[in-house]
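Entry 14. Structure prediction run on the chain below.
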Amino acid sequence: QVQLVESGGGLVQAGGSLRLSCAASGRSLSGRAMGWFRQAPGKEREFVASISWSGTWTYYADSVKGRFTISRDDAKNTVYLQMNSLKPEDTAVYYCAIDKTPSGSAPRLAGAYDYWGQGTQVTVSS
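Output returned:
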Protein backbone atom coordinates (compact mmCIF):
# COMPACT_ATOMS: atom_id res chain seq x y z
CA GLN A 1 0.00 0.00 0.00
CA VAL A 2 1.51 3.28 -1.14
CA GLN A 3 1.11 6.17 1.25
CA LEU A 4 2.13 9.79 0.90
CA VAL A 5 2.07 11.99 3.97
CA GLU A 6 2.45 15.74 3.67
CA SER A 7 3.59 17.88 6.57
CA GLY A 8 4.90 21.36 7.28
CA GLY A 9 1.79 23.38 6.60
CA GLY A 10 0.49 26.02 8.97
CA LEU A 11 -0.40 29.65 9.45
CA VAL A 12 2.14 32.24 8.35
CA GLN A 13 2.12 35.97 7.70
CA ALA A 14 2.49 37.33 4.20
CA GLY A 15 6.14 37.44 3.24
CA GLY A 16 6.96 34.45 5.41
CA SER A 17 8.22 31.00 4.50
CA LEU A 18 7.20 27.39 4.95
CA ARG A 19 8.79 24.12 3.94
CA LEU A 20 6.45 21.30 3.03
CA SER A 21 7.56 17.68 3.12
CA CYS A 22 6.02 14.65 1.43
CA ALA A 23 7.17 11.34 2.84
CA ALA A 24 6.38 8.13 0.99
CA SER A 25 5.96 4.62 2.31
CA GLY A 26 5.13 1.38 0.55
CA ARG A 27 7.05 2.39 -2.57
CA SER A 28 10.35 3.94 -3.40
CA LEU A 29 10.11 7.36 -5.06
CA SER A 30 13.29 6.61 -6.94
CA GLY A 31 12.63 6.59 -10.68
CA ARG A 32 9.35 8.50 -10.41
CA ALA A 33 8.60 12.15 -11.07
CA MET A 34 6.76 13.94 -8.26
CA GLY A 35 4.37 16.83 -8.20
CA TRP A 36 2.84 19.35 -5.83
CA PHE A 37 -0.67 20.65 -6.38
CA ARG A 38 -2.95 22.89 -4.35
CA GLN A 39 -6.64 23.54 -3.96
CA ALA A 40 -8.16 26.67 -2.50
CA PRO A 41 -11.76 26.78 -1.24
CA GLY A 42 -14.21 26.94 -4.11
CA LYS A 43 -11.48 26.45 -6.71
CA GLU A 44 -10.19 23.53 -8.73
CA ARG A 45 -6.98 21.74 -7.89
CA GLU A 46 -4.06 23.43 -9.65
CA PHE A 47 -0.51 22.55 -10.48
CA VAL A 48 2.20 24.11 -8.34
CA ALA A 49 5.50 22.38 -9.10
CA SER A 50 6.97 19.12 -10.35
CA ILE A 51 10.36 17.44 -10.42
CA SER A 52 11.62 14.76 -12.77
CA TRP A 53 12.65 11.31 -11.56
CA SER A 54 16.32 12.32 -11.71
CA GLY A 55 15.80 15.73 -10.18
CA THR A 56 17.29 17.28 -13.32
CA TRP A 57 14.15 19.12 -14.44
CA THR A 58 11.75 21.16 -12.42
CA TYR A 59 8.63 23.04 -13.48
CA TYR A 60 6.62 25.69 -11.71
CA ALA A 61 3.33 27.43 -12.11
CA ASP A 62 3.84 31.03 -13.17
CA SER A 63 2.20 32.18 -9.94
CA VAL A 64 4.94 30.61 -7.78
CA LYS A 65 7.98 30.84 -10.05
CA GLY A 66 10.89 32.49 -8.27
CA ARG A 67 9.30 31.99 -4.84
CA PHE A 68 8.87 28.20 -4.52
CA THR A 69 11.48 25.47 -4.93
CA ILE A 70 10.80 21.76 -5.31
CA SER A 71 13.47 19.23 -4.39
CA ARG A 72 13.79 15.54 -3.62
CA ASP A 73 15.86 13.26 -1.42
CA ASP A 74 15.43 9.71 -2.65
CA ALA A 75 17.52 8.36 0.21
CA LYS A 76 14.84 9.69 2.56
CA ASN A 77 12.01 8.87 0.14
CA THR A 78 10.85 12.45 0.54
CA VAL A 79 10.00 15.40 -1.67
CA TYR A 80 10.04 19.00 -0.46
CA LEU A 81 8.46 22.29 -1.40
CA GLN A 82 10.23 25.35 -0.06
CA MET A 83 7.84 28.30 -0.16
CA ASN A 84 9.20 31.81 0.30
CA SER A 85 7.62 35.25 0.04
CA LEU A 86 4.23 33.75 0.69
CA LYS A 87 1.13 35.67 -0.33
CA PRO A 88 -2.48 35.41 0.87
CA GLU A 89 -3.39 33.92 -2.52
CA ASP A 90 -1.12 30.96 -1.74
CA THR A 91 -3.63 29.86 0.90
CA ALA A 92 -4.78 26.35 0.00
CA VAL A 93 -4.51 22.69 0.83
CA TYR A 94 -1.28 21.39 -0.70
CA TYR A 95 -1.02 17.86 -2.05
CA CYS A 96 1.89 15.79 -3.30
CA ALA A 97 1.54 13.04 -5.87
CA ILE A 98 3.53 10.32 -7.65
CA ASP A 99 3.78 10.16 -11.44
CA LYS A 100 2.08 7.10 -12.96
CA THR A 101 4.85 6.67 -15.51
CA PRO A 102 8.34 5.44 -14.55
CA SER A 103 11.16 7.84 -15.39
CA GLY A 104 8.68 10.56 -16.25
CA SER A 105 9.66 14.11 -17.06
CA ALA A 106 7.73 15.92 -14.33
CA PRO A 107 4.23 16.29 -15.77
CA ARG A 108 2.05 19.25 -14.94
CA LEU A 109 -1.37 17.61 -15.35
CA ALA A 110 -3.07 16.05 -12.33
CA GLY A 111 -4.22 13.11 -14.46
CA ALA A 112 -0.63 11.99 -14.89
CA TYR A 113 -0.38 11.16 -11.19
CA ASP A 114 -1.85 8.14 -9.46
CA TYR A 115 -1.09 8.25 -5.75
CA TRP A 116 -1.91 11.34 -3.71
CA GLY A 117 -1.37 12.44 -0.14
CA GLN A 118 -4.13 13.67 2.16
CA GLY A 119 -2.94 17.26 1.93
CA THR A 120 -1.60 19.87 4.34
CA GLN A 121 -3.23 23.24 4.96
CA VAL A 122 -1.27 26.40 4.26
CA THR A 123 -2.83 29.67 5.38
CA VAL A 124 -1.18 33.00 4.66
CA SER A 125 -2.52 36.01 6.51
CA SER A 126 -2.27 39.54 5.17
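The CA atoms of residues 38 and 55 lie 21 Å apart.
Filed with the rest of this week's runs.
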